[in-house]
Specification:
This protein has 2 domains: 226 residues, no CATH class; 117 residues. The chain is elongated and about 145 Å long. The termini are far apart. It is α+β, with helices and mostly antiparallel strands. A 6-stranded antiparallel beta barrel has the order 3-4-7-6-5-8. It has a 5-stranded antiparallel sheet with strand order 12-11-13-15-14. It has 6 helices and 15 strands.
Length: 430
């Protein structure tokens, strides 16, 4: 056999060897090994996804908490602003509203222990909670007061004509490039002096009376267009006459130089608004409670529209499960004609003395002293949307770490405590 033939046979054998594929055993081993790698990657990914989802829910609960705290803090800071802290005891409210009148509960802070319990009872009971509510009174429409040029009585009520040439009014009239009769300005007037709300009328001696706004319109004055506020006939405004022995109570002269501003009531409580805001409650979830801000009428009822699709109720924070309040109160004794040393005591949550001091001023007995509250502390607890734990941690009630849901799982919670100084009444000594 020649050498060339041997070389060709060797070359063909090498080609057949190099072209040979995997055996069945080798293929099975490779597939199984690959499956183990994929399974390990899947398990790692699943655990990471679950962890990230849980942390995202906790972060969302924390964000809800911060949003709710910021809004509540802002409104608490306005408690008593351009109003009165205690309509019963305030010496500068003169004349006093009738006992059956609209403003008998006119006070800076009205604390209602357990005020949110009835709306959240289904889940508050299993978690040992008794959430509160609070009503705040003050000027939430702005921080300006407006000067009157005259206050006049008529058969249908009263009319207050406002001065045009002062800083507050010029800022108001500057809306809409000076278009005094434009719709934008009318909308702003309606927001500044809301129909059906209280108006504080303060004379040049510092005496205030509270009346009800009928409407506000633009009217002609000698200096141009200016707002005119129509007031309801009841309650009646007081005008000082020569027959009055007390020359402080009421409107002096024609009311020139008197100041006016709106006064409103805001309530914070926990409730479920699925009936009027289904977009905020996935699948009609009735186990979700939110921190809700609601404007009230002077008689304590909710403003028209509450409970309907056009409700002015505002969801301040979602998935809130507990709301508590505590107060720091100046208990210093009153002394006449001498310096009074303040004695501010920070009372704990659920303290009976502080609860009475922040109670209804019309209840009698003189225990309610909201004008002596110097700061409000609040505790808000939010939960994650879904439960991700099967057991509880820590105590039930205020300060709980996990919140029991109807499906038997526990949602994680976040609690924050804050404090707001009531600067509008820091010098109230009565």
């Amino acid at each position: 056999m020649s050498a060339s033939l041997l070389l060709r046979r060797a070359s063909r054998k090498t080609s057949r060897t190099s072209a040979r594929g995997f055996t069945l055993i080798e293929l099975l081993v490779a597939v199984i090994a690959g499956l183990f790698v994929v399974l390990a990657a899947f398990l790692l990914s699943k655990g990471s996804t679950r962890l990230f989802g849980e942390e995202s829910r906790v972060a969302s609960a924390q964000l809800n908490l911060r949003i709710g705290i910021d809004r509540l803090r802002s409104d608490l800071a306005r408690a008593g602003l351009m109003s009165t802290s205690n309509v019963v005891a305030d010496p500068d409210v003169c004349p006093k509203p009738a006992a059956s009148g609209f403003a008998t509960r006119l006070q800076s802070i009205l604390y209602v222990p357990g005020g949110s319990y009835a709306a959240t009872k289904a889940l508050s009971d299993p978690n040992g909670l008794n959430p509160d509510s609070i009503i705040i009174n003050g000027n939430f429409a702005g921080s300006d007061y407006y000067l009157a040029s005259s206050v006049e009585a008529s058969g249908a009520g009263y009319t207050i004509y406002l001065q045009r040439n002062n800083g507050a009014m010029q800022r108001l009239l500057s809306v809409g490039a000076g278009a005094d009769s434009g719709g934008d300005l009318q909308a702003l007037l309606d927001a500044t002096f809301p129909t059906g709300k209280l108006l504080r009328l303060t004379n040049n001696l510092g005496s205030s009376q509270f009346l009800l706004i009928q409407s506000v319109t633009m009217g002609a004055t000698i200096n141009g267009l200016a707002p005119q506020i129509s007031l309801k006939l009841s309650p009646s405004a007081k005008f000082i006459t020569t027959a009055d022995a007390d020359k402080k109570c009421g409107v002096t002269g024609f009311g020139l130089g008197a100041t006016v501003n709106a006064v409103q009531f805001m309530r914070y409580d926990l409730r479920n608004l699925a009936a009027i805001a289904p977009w905020a409650y996935p699948d009609g979830d009735t186990t979700k409670f939110d921190l809700v801000r609601t404007e009230l009428n002077p008689d304590g009822t909710e403003v028209p529209g509450c409970g309907t699709s056009a409700s002015p109720q505002q969801i301040v924070a979602e998935y809130v499960v507990d709301l508590k309040f505590a107060f720091s109160i100046d208990d210093g004794a009153l002394t006449t004609g001498a310096y009074r040393e303040p004695n501010v005591i920070a009372y704990p949550f659920n303290d009976a003395t502080a609860t009475a001091a922040a109670g209804d001023v019309t209840a009698g007995g003189g225990a309610a002293r909201p004008q002596r509250i110097r700061s409000v502390r609040f505790q808000i607890t939010t939960r994650s949307r879904d439960g991700d734990r099967s057991s509880a941690i820590g105590p039930t009630g205020s300060g709980l770490l996990r919140y029991l849901l109807p499906n038997g799982l526990y949602a994680r919670t976040r609690t924050d405590v804050g404090e707001v100084a009531l600067l509008n009444q820091q010098s109230a000594a009565y």
